[in-house]
Give the backbone structure.
Amino acid sequence: MARRLPRKDVVIVGLGWTGSILAYELARTGLDVVALERGPWRDTASDFNIGTAPDELRYAVRHDIFLRPKQETLTMRNNPSQTALPIRKWGSFLPGNGVGGAGLHWNGQTWRFLPDDFRIRSHMIERYGQGILPEGNQIQDWPVSYDELEPHYDRFEQVAGISGKAGNIKGKIQPGGNPFEGARERDYPTPPLKQGYAQSLFTKAATEMGLHPFPRPSANISMAYTNPYGCSMAPCTYCGFCEWFGCANYSKSSPQTCVLPALVREPTFEARTDCEVTKINLSGDGKTATGVTYVDASGEEWEQPGDLVLVCAFSLFNVRLLLLSGIGKPYDPASGKGVVGRNYAYQTGSGALGFFNDAKFNPFAAAGSLGVALDDYNSDNFDHGPHGFVGGASITSAHTNGRPIRYHPTPPGTPTWGSAWKKAVKDNYQRVTNVGAQGSVMSYRNNYLDLDPTYKDPLGRPLMRMTFDYQPNEQKMANWMAERCQEIVKAMGASSTKLNRLGVPWSVVPYQTTHNTGGAVMGNDPNTSVLNRYLQSWDVSNVFVMGASAFPQNAGYNPTGTVGALTYWSLEAILKYLKSPGALVSR
Amino acid sequence: MWLRTLVLLLPLFSAGSVTAGPDNYVDIARGKALVIAGDCAACHTAEGGQPFAGGLALQTPFGAIMTPNITFDTTTGIGSWSADDFARAMQEGRRPGGGHLYPAFPYPYYTKVERSDLDAIYLYLRALPPVENRVNRNTLPFPFNIRLLMKGWNALFFTSGTFKPDPARSAEFNRGAYLVEGLGHCGACHTPFNAFGANQNDKYLEGNQIDNWTAPNITNDPRVGLGKWSVDDIVQYLKTGQNAFSLASGPMKDAIENSTSEMPVADLKAIAVYLKERGAEGPPASTPLAASDPRMQAGEAIYVDTCAACHVRTGTGVAHLFPKLAGNVVTTQEDPASLIRIVIAGGRAAATEGFPTSPAMPSLGYRLSDKQVADVVTYVRNSWGNAAAPVSEETVRTLRAKVTGAAPGE
C-alpha cells in the first residue's frame, strides 16, 4: 500500500532536458515542483572527471550511463504477424538512465525541422497528388507551424548555446548557412565549430556539384558561453567523446551544463532520484490526474499527489506510462482506432564510406556534432516526382570520434579478425571518411507501440511491445540517399567506396540511432492524436507530455532541437493553463 | 512625502533599545543582514546540521574546537543569555559566568562591532527557532583545555574596544574598515598567525595558510595582493564568486556563497574601497625561473598534457569556468598550498545567483607523483609573466599527507 506524501503543485516524471527546463521555469514562478527520476543523480563535477570521463570501455561498450534491460526493456517484432520477444541487450537504440537522460549522452546535433516538415501531408498532396503517399501510411500534419515554433527553437538554442551559422535570417539568405532552413529571427548564439580536412573536401566537392553545404548546428560549442539561466559553458576541445559519454569539459549542452546549476538553487524545487514512477493516478471519472505513484530505491511505494503532472521521460517510456495509467485509448492497428502507441517512427541511416589513397583525416580530433551537412535532399527540397517516395535526409560529412575500441573502418573483403584485419585497421584508420544520410521515417498503420500480452517487468507490469519495420518508402528513400552520398565521396577524391544501404528488416542488434519518435503524438484531431497542439492530453487536461513521442512522424534530422522547441512552446501554454485550468483546446 | 520621511527616520529609531518586543521586525532584519555579513552560520553549523546549532569541529593548531549552539535553546544554546551577556561574549570573549572563550571565536574582531549592531544580531538569533543540540565544548587536549590560560593570551594579544572611524578618510572607507576589521573578520584567515594562534597585527591581511588552503594577501600589493584589481573587480568577486582574474574556491567559496554574495553591493563597495586604500604590503619581487630549468621543462610537459585543455596553453583559462593562471595572484603567493591541494584533491568554484555553475577542478593526485605536482606548480608559478619561488617535492609530500591522509612518500 503506497504511503501518501504531501501535495505538490507540479509533479515531473523524468529529469532530462524537458523535465529540467519545465522544473526550472515553473519553480521560479514560485510553484512547488518535485521531479521524480528513476535513475541516479549525475552532475559534471562529481560524475565526469576529465581524467576518467573519456573511457570508451566503461561508457560506450559497457553502457555505464544507460538503462539496464533488467530495469525496463521492450519486446520487439517487425510486423503484427510475428510474436514479439524481449530485448535482452540494448542494441539499435540506447535509452539513457538518470538525471540528464538522453540529453547527457547525446552527440549534440541540434536541428530545426523545415517548414514543410510540419505540414508534410498537405504539402506532398498539393505538389504531387494523393498518389505520392506510401501504402499504409498514417502521415499527418503537425498541429503547429514552423513559424509558431520559431521563437521557441530560438529560446532552446540560446539556453543550449548552440554553435552554428544561420542560413536564413528573417527571410534573407545568409552565405555559408543552410539556404533551405526556415526563417530565423537571429543567428545561433555561438559560431560554428572548426571543421576538419574531410569537411573541407566535402564542402568543395558538394559546392562544385551545385549543392549547398553548411556547418551543422552543434551542442558541442565553439566558445565560452553563459546562457540566459546564468550557466556557463567552455569551448569544445574536440576530444571526440560525446555520444554515450558525459562531457567533463562543460562543452556539451546538457541539462547538467545548461539548466541544473540554476535549477538546484530554486528553493521550491526538489528532485527525488532512484524513484520510478509506476502510474499516473486518476480521479474516479478518469478526467483528472491526482498525482503519481512511484517506487523508491528500497522498493517502498509512495503516492505523490499533485495538481499538474508533466510526463518528461524518454519518448518510449512516456508512451508506456500513458498505457499503464489508462490515459488515452490504446491504439489498435486492426481497427485503426485508438491513439496511444500510434505512429511510432524511427530514423534511417545510410551512406557511403570513402577510402582515400593518401589522406590524413585525424578522426580522433572530433566532436559529436562537428561536421558539414547539406539539405538539398531533405524534406521536399528536391523534386520527389521521379523517385516515388516521401521524405528525405540530411547528408553529412562528419567525424564524431576516432576512438580506439570501436572506430576501425576497413575496406570490403577484409577479414573480421586476425593479422590481416589488424593490418587493414592500421592502414585505413587515417584514410577513411564517411558521407552519411540521416533520413526521415513516415508513420504507418502497422508501426506502433502497445503493451505486450506475455512479458512483464520486475514489478509485474506488462512490457511495452514495439512493432516496427522500415517500409518500402523508407528503403527506397534511404538507398537513393546512399547513392547521393557515394557520388559526393567519389567527388571528394575517394579511390574506392563502400555503399551502406538501409539494413532490412530492421534489426534490434546493431546500434543505429536512439531517435525513437511518436506513440503519443500531438494533433488537431483527438481521433488521431493523444495530445492537443499544446502537448496537453486530450483526455486528462492536467497531464502534459513532452518529448519526441509527440512527433506525428519523424523528419530527416536529430530530434532534440524540436523536442526543446516544443517544450518551450508547451511551457507558454502551461503558464496559461495555470491561470485557468482546463482543456486548452476543446474536443 | 511623509512616507519618505518616515522611511528615512526608521534607521534612527531602529538603532534604539534592545528591549523592543520580539516583533521588532526592522531590527531583526538588520540583525539578519549582520549575521550574514559575519557569516556566523559558517562556523556555528555542523555539516548537515541545523543552522546555528553548532557542533562543527574547527581545526586549530592546538586541537579541534567544537563550535557552540547559538540558537536560543535554554539548555543547550544561549537561550538564557541577556543582550548584555551576548555583547560581552562578542566584545570581550567572556561567557555569562565569566569563563573565557577561545579566540577561534574571533572576538578580537567582534570587539569592534557597535553595541546597537550586536543588539540587532541578538534579536535576530532570538527570533530563530531554538534547536536542542548539546555540543561537547571541551575537546582541546591539556594544557589548552585550561580556559584560564586565555587570560594571559588576552593580556598579550587582545585589545578591546569598538571601531573608531578615521575622520581623515571617507565615510565609505570607514564603513569598509568597520566591516572588514569587525564582523567580517577577514583578517582571521588572511593575516598570519603567531605561535600562540594570534593574528600578527604587523602583517595584517598579508596572507596566511588556513586549513591547508592559502588565504592570499589582500592588501593592495600589486604583485601578490589586490593591486591589479579595481574596486569593481573586488565587488564582483565578492558578489558573484568570480571576476576576470579569479574564481573563488576553498573556504572563500563558502564565505562568498553564504555571506558576501548575500550582502548589499554598497557594503561590498565599501569593503573594496577600504582594501584598495588602506595600503600595500608584500614580499619582494621574485625573478621567474628560467624556461630551461629542468623543473620548468618537466612542469610544462605535464601542463600541456593535463592542464592545458581547460586552462589553455597560454594560461588564460576560460571565462567563468576555468580560472586564468597567468596573472592570477593565487598562483604567486609565497605559500603555494592552494595550488598544490587543488592539483592533488581538486576543488569547486563558488556557485552564486549570477554564476550558478560551480565548475569543478578534478583531483589529479591519483596520477601525479609529488615530484610531478611540484614541477607543474612550479611551472605555473613561473610562466606567462608569473614569478614565484619554486615548489619542492617535500612541500608537496607534506601537504598531500595533510590533505589526503596519505602517508608521506606514498
User: Anything to note?
Assistant: The longest strand of chain A covers residues 301-311. Chain A has a mean pLDDT of 97.
